[in-house]
Amino acid sequence: MVDRILAGAKAIALARRNHAPLAPLEVPPRDEAEGYKIQRALHDLLLPHAGPLVGYKIACTSQVMQDYMQMDHPCVGGVFEKVVHDSGAKLAASDYVRVGVECEIAVRLKRDLAPGEAPFTAEWVGEAVDAYAPAIEIVDDRYVKWETMGAPTLIADDFFAAGCVLGEAVPRSSVPDLKAVAGRALINGEEAGKGTGADVLGHPHNALAWLANHLAAEGKGLHAGQLVLTGSLVKTLWLKAGDKVRMELDGLGVVEAKFT
């Protein structure tokens, strides 16, 4: 079992380091639980390349993304220190296999959410949030054909996660009703998608509670200072070199990046 897990993690890590499309694994994970075991082993292998794990991204929290990915529940992937950028970042499209972006509400925690506190509710995790930020999640279609990979393998590879770009943080006391926050995604000045905070499992705190409970079931917690991308308000937008990206989230601000 350990050999299966490590072999899968090594194959994914090699593809990630080489910016090479990942073919179906020789021994793919049998189910999502095994996919998460490979993901944990992968995170250890990525440390020298991507830096420490600084948080998580939650995938498939909105109906538009569940329909697109053909998934009926959320999934989680890691976010690493070296791929968290400030608004205005200029990033090389060649650093990705096929780069895409999503419009998200990010949260930063002010205290730990320990596994012993589970089960978590939206209200409970909301109290643990320090600040919010408008975010561009960067995703990478680093697969020969993602539609045939299967959810367990996508989970093993952090479910497309490739980092994020963050706008200015807004203290929790200053944010509007997150359910009503409207987000717009603009590519080269043209609106390419829109949604609201209510599209994220009814409220972004519901997504955060799902993550805290998911981690608690594995005996793991969330920690003060960690970043969580709560899920996309819009369908993934695939980019080409030269594209300028701007996400506008009412009451939270704006975040921008250029992919050169």
TrEMBL record:
Gene3D superfamilies: Fumarylacetoacetase-like, C-terminal domain
Domain of life: Bacteria
InterPro entries reported for this sequence: Fumarylacetoacetase-like_C, Fumarylacetoacetase_C_sf, Hydratase-Decarb/MhpD_sf
A Pfam family of this chain: FAA_hydrolase
Keywords: Lyase
Domain Fumarylacetoacetase-like C-terminal: 94-259
PANTHER family: 2-KETO-4-PENTENOATE HYDRATASE (PTHR30143:SF0), ACID HYDRATASE (PTHR30143)
Protein name, entry field: Hydratase
